[in-house]
Amino acid sequence: MVHTYGWYLRKYLADAKAKGVTPVVCSPVPRKIWKDGRIERASQDYGKWAAEVARDAGVAFVDLNEIIARRYEELGPAAVEALFADEHTHTTSAGAEIAARCVVLALKGLADCPPCRFLSAKADTPSALTVDPGLPHLEQHGGATQPVLNGRPGGE
Questions:
Q1: Class in CATH terms, 5-153
Q2: Checking phi first, is residue 37 left (phi over 0); if not, alpha (psi -120 to 50) or beta?
């Protein structure tokens, strides 16, 4: 039998709590869909449902959909284009690095986060959202953001 998204979230939370785990619900990350200069949010479907389940279960909620969408908007459409390996869903390793750092910063911002002691110090500050120079990442040059791959702008 197939159940709803909310049913599965509630089941995962109940199972985790039964084993003494401190669960944190995260909304899905946004897709690369721009509308009127902004990234579309999933605030009326999966993001909303995740928040409702977390609230009802009394667990922490991290709105990755909003956090990462804001980060994409700061970077702009051209820079964000380089962060995706396909039309709008799957990121490149540089996109995954930005998303992961957003997750760590958001978790560290929670009032009660027992697992935070295990998280990397690499994302302790917002400036840490830039990645290691040896990895694919984004750099600011003369007001424009461009991808840097293989240590060279544009990856040439």
A1: alpha beta
A2: left
Q: Tokens in use for 152?
A: 């060279």
What pLDDT digit, counting tens, does each position of 57-96 carry? 999 999 999 999 999 999 999 999 999 999 999 999 999 9
| Domains of the chain, residue spans | 5-153
Answer whether 116's CB lies under 8 Å from 110's CB: yes
**pLDDT tens track for 4-51:** 999 999 999 999 999 999 899 999 999 999 999 999 998 899 999 999
Q: Please give the model's pTM, rounded to 2 decimal places.
A: 0.75
Task: Sort 144 into a burial class: Cβ within 10 Å, 0-12 / 13-18 / 19+.
Answer: exposed
Determine which helix (DSSP H) or strand (DSSP E) holds 140, and give its type and residue range: strand 137-141
